[in-house]
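Reopening: Amidohydrolase family protein still failing for me.
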Amino acid sequence: MRVRTPGSADAERSQGVNQSDSSGFSRRGFIQSLALSGLAVSPATVAAAPKTDQTLKLEKLSKQLGENFIVEAGWILTDSRGELKLVRNGQVLVRRGVVEDVREGGFTDALPRLKLPRQLLLPGFISGHTHCCSATPTRGIIEGPRSYARPLELVEMLSDDEMDALTALNLAELLRSGCTTHLEMSLSLRQAESYVRSAIPWGVRAYPGAMIPGIERLFAIWFRSDDKVLMDSEQGTLDEIAANLKFCKAHMGKGDGLIRPMMSPHACDTQTPATMRALASAAKELGTGLHIHLSQGQQETDTVKRLWGKTPTQWMESFGMLSEGPVFGAHMSGLDWEIDPPILKKHGVVYAHCPSGGGAGNGTQPYPEALAAGMAVNIGIDTHSNDYVENLKLAVLYGQARHELLGELDPERDSQRPTIWNAIDGATRIPAKGLGRDDLGAIRPGCRADLISVEMSDMLNGTGALPPEPLNNLLYANGRMVRTVMTDGRVQVLDGQFVADEPRRVLDEGGEVAKKIWRQLEQEAWFTDTPR
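Support: Ran it again with your exact input. Result attached.
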């Protein structure tokens, strides 16, 4: 969380199922201001859009697949003996949510077949860092730049129904772009509950938790001018830790085991020794690990060194927080590159690099340096862009630009030029290993059938023919080119259409809530002039 302050005509090209053998603003004040100005909106007031013929057709096709089926694809990215390998014209046999076999040739089983002749089949993407509820209300209005602090505060003031509508839209976007597993740091406990309410019926694989301190308390502690504010916040943070531990236990294993909550502290500079001990204890009790913003900027590292005499990484290690289950740390722009990487590597900590963190064009992060240091690096979403394919591209392209600039400006700093292979590995196998899940992040026998496909031969990212090196074509793609998404073999996107729910309703209801927030921002004269 990096806050800035000042339907197919060609049967061959389409996807199909073949059945043959082939701060300080109160909640009351917020609601009153909306009521007085005639702005109060409930998602329930949005007329549910009727399902189109295409939607009904796709729902029927997804049901026809059933539990056991075969996926045929023009290219398949497999994991063969620990190496990524592209298989042309391959097939994947799925039984009851698990990949049973992968072949270059065909299967003779008389099972339904999902035919993707001009598509690339990949493991479902894993984001090591999301704030699901809060993307759409800020997207397109913070690039001025403006701080997104106030919009995020207003999100927390929504009713539960409105929050659910916003969460659902953002969650649908993540799935639509091929992101099947989310390490979700909701900005409050209410938002975490909202996330779970949307994720379970859609069959989403998630490691949710609420940020501690939550958004209602965060900014006063984070942007404090006096450390007494931090010390005085201690009991409130301990109370949040206890509440979040209760949330995690209550939801552990829900959604047929897909929901596995984690403790999610905001960052080290908003904690005290007492809260760090409580977080370490809670994480150990749960056994699912920690998800944190780690050295997300130089100010955090400097503050922790000043207060506690250690880098944030060292401080976490001193409480045993790096050795009790998975640890994912986002951003890491303020790492001490002499001290921290060896510690992080020793404990298998995963760096969640979020190229669109803070909004579009908000600078680069140390992806090339982390690769050069041999760290485990994941591609994460953060807040404002839910397009995972776009973030893969940004990771590579921003990273290559940063690498070149470092070579000119700081040649003594170790750096590695990122490739699309680095990014894909960081989206799949690396975070799966970091989670301790050898059944995720790969297409090989025994892995869960978390699968996605991307169009490779259409306009803009293709050439009209199946390309010879398909991963490179991802550098010209975006989330709209994702055609299939499934988790545990359950289809959530088919032929590029969201089928886990009615997409028009999800979009309309989420949009109404975003408009409500924007109108409140207009009332507060938040929309200042921006450079042109």
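The radius of gyration is 23 Å. If you still see a failure, please send the error message rather than a screenshot.
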